[in-house]
Amino acid sequence: MAALGVEKPIKAPRLTGIVAMIVIFALGFASGWRPLAYVVVTEVTSLRLRDHTSRLGF
């Protein structure tokens, strides 16, 4: 994304490429394992250590 925005002024095809890469990143992030980290951290830990473990995990 950064390489497409280096040249000034940014032309329309490059701007479209930047937006497309942002969308691809968001879809890949949301459909991958990363959003599950919040669920796993809160469900796996014991009740006594849940607060500390959640702070460390997040």
TrEMBL record:
The keyword Transmembrane applies. The chain crosses the membrane at residues 12-33. The lineage of its organism: Eukaryota, Fungi, Dikarya, Ascomycota, Pezizomycotina. This is Major facilitator superfamily (MFS) profile domain-containing protein. It comes from the Eukaryota. Gene3D superfamilies: MFS general substrate transporter like domains (1.20.1250.20). Keywords: Membrane, Transmembrane, Transmembrane helix.
